Amino acid sequence: MTLDELESRIALRAAASPDESYTAKLISRGMEKCAQKVGEEATEAVIAAVTGNRTELVKESADLLYHLLVVLKAADIPLSEVMAELDARTAQSGLAEKASRKDQN
Predict the structure, then answer these.
(1) How far apart are CA 75 and CA 7, in angstroms?
(2) Most buried residue, 3, 16, 29, 60, by most Cβ within 10 Å?
(3) pLDDT of residue 97
(4) C-alpha angle 26-8-43 in degrees, rounded to nearest 5
(5) Exposed/middle/buried for 29, CB within 10 Å: 0-12, 13-18, 19+?
C-alpha cells in the first residue's frame, strides 16, 4: 500500500457513517481527538524504537501514518501538499533547510 492509496481509503471511510467507520467516527469527534491520536501513536512508536522492539515499531509506525493522514483529512490538507513541501526541501541539504527554519522564527 502506498500513502496515496491510504489517503484514498481514508477519504472513502471518512464519508461513511460514524456508526460504520472508525475513521468517520474519529473525524466526527473533532480535530483535538484526531491530533491526540497522532500524539499517542507517535509516543508508542518512540517507545518501540528506543526499546528496540522492531515488531512493535512497524505496527506503531503504521498506526502513526494512518492517524497523521486522518488529521490531514480533517484539516482538508491533501497529502500532495505535504509531499510538495518535502520535495521543496530537497533542493538544499537537510542541515541548511533546518537552519533556514530557525531564521524564520
Answers:
(1) 13
(2) 60
(3) 65
(4) 45
(5) middle
